[in-house]
C-alpha cells in the first residue's frame, strides 16, 4: 500500500471512532467508568435500624436520636395522622434505607400487631400510608384437665396450639361463658375437664388472639355443662346448654371477673384484729381500682363509709336478697341511695379501706337479714329461659352442626360439618 493510501485509511478509522464517541453518553463526574472503564457499579446494600419509643419520649425525639435533624423529624411526624400524645411507650419503630444515603428512605411505626404506619421520603418531603396486615383464621379444639386452676388447664391443653396472651384470653372467654354457673376462681376442682371450640387468629409475625368461641364443655364430677353460641335476632350473642336452656341466670356467681378468692366463707383469723371471728362472706384478691360489678339487678340501699367495712355499697335485689361490697376505693358514677343498677353493671372499685391489710373486695350475701354462704346462695339462682318453637329449631341446627367437632381430638378442625 502506498504512503498516501495508508494515510487515508488511518484518517477514516479516526473519524469513525470520533463519530461513535459522539453517540455514547458522556460520563459524569463520579461515574465509575471514568476510573474503571465500563466496570458495573457495585450493588446497593439496604440497611434497617430497629428501635422502640421510650417512656416519656416523643416520636421526634426518637427520630432525632436516630440521626434525623429536628426539622426533618418534625416533618415525618406531621406527615402522619398520629396523635403524639396517645402513642404508648414501647411502640416498635423501624428505619430503612440503603448505602446511597445515610438518611432513611422509609420509617415504619408498628401501631398494633396488625397495623403499620409507613412514612416514605421523596426528596425532602414525606408521605404516610397505613397498612392493615392480614390475619390467618382457623378453627381449633382444645382439651384440658384441671389440676390447679383454669389457667393451668388451658396452658397445658393448648401446648403448640396457642401462645402468649392468647391462652389467658381463652381462659377469660370460657370464664365469661360460665359466669352464671360457676365461679372459676373458686369452684373448679382437680380432675375437672374443659374443652373449647374456637376461632384462632394468627398475625403475619406469629402473634395469636382468640376469636369467637363457638362451643365449650365443662365437666365437673362426671357431669358436663355444654355451651353453644347463638346470635339472637337483635344481634346479641348468648350461650345455651345442650337442651337449649340459657346459661344466663338471675345472678352472676362472682362480683369480679375471674379473679382469685383469697379467703373462703367460714371462720378465719382476722388479719388485723388477730382474733377468730365469723368471716361473713368471701374475699376476692384483686388490684386496687379493679371494677366491682353488681351480681344482679337491684337498688342501692347504702353507699358510703361504715366502720371496719370502709367504703361499702349494699344492693337489695328483687327477691329481697341483699349483697354487700366492702373495702372499696370509691364508687362508680351515679351510685347513691335509691339508684337502680343492672346485672353486671360497674358499681365501685376495689380498694383497701376500713379494716383491710391489702387491696381486695369483701363480698357478702344476706337473706332475711342473715348471712349466707355466697357460693350456696347464688348456686340456687333461677336459670335463664329456654328456647322454644322456631328458635329452638334454629338452635338444634347450630348444635348439631358443631357437636361432632367437640368429639374430635384436640387440634385444628378443618371444616365444620364435613
UniProtKB/TrEMBL annotation:
<dbReference type="Pfam" id="PF01551">
    <property type="entry name" value="Peptidase_M23"/>
</dbReference>
<keyword id="KW-0862">Zinc</keyword>
<dbReference type="InterPro" id="IPR011055">
    <property type="entry name" value="Dup_hybrid_motif"/>
</dbReference>
<keyword id="KW-0479">Metal-binding</keyword>
<dbReference type="InterPro" id="IPR045834">
    <property type="entry name" value="Csd3_N2"/>
</dbReference>
<dbReference type="Pfam" id="PF19425">
    <property type="entry name" value="Csd3_N2"/>
</dbReference>
<dbReference type="GO" id="GO:0006508">
    <property type="term" value="P:proteolysis"/>
</dbReference>
<dbReference type="GO" id="GO:0004222">
    <property type="term" value="F:metalloendopeptidase activity"/>
</dbReference>
<dbReference type="GO" id="GO:0030313">
    <property type="term" value="C:cell envelope"/>
</dbReference>
<dbReference type="InterPro" id="IPR050570">
    <property type="entry name" value="Cell_wall_metabolism_enzyme"/>
</dbReference>
<keyword id="KW-0378">Hydrolase</keyword>
<dbReference type="GO" id="GO:0046872">
    <property type="term" value="F:metal ion binding"/>
</dbReference>
<keyword id="KW-0645">Protease</keyword>
<dbReference type="InterPro" id="IPR016047">
    <property type="entry name" value="M23ase_b-sheet_dom"/>
</dbReference>
<feature type="domain" description="Csd3-like second N-terminal">
    <location>
        <begin position="163"/>
        <end position="265"/>
    </location>
</feature>
<keyword id="KW-0482">Metalloprotease</keyword>
<feature type="domain" description="M23ase beta-sheet core">
    <location>
        <begin position="278"/>
        <end position="374"/>
    </location>
</feature>
<protein>
    <submittedName>
        <fullName>M23 family metallopeptidase</fullName>
    </submittedName>
</protein>
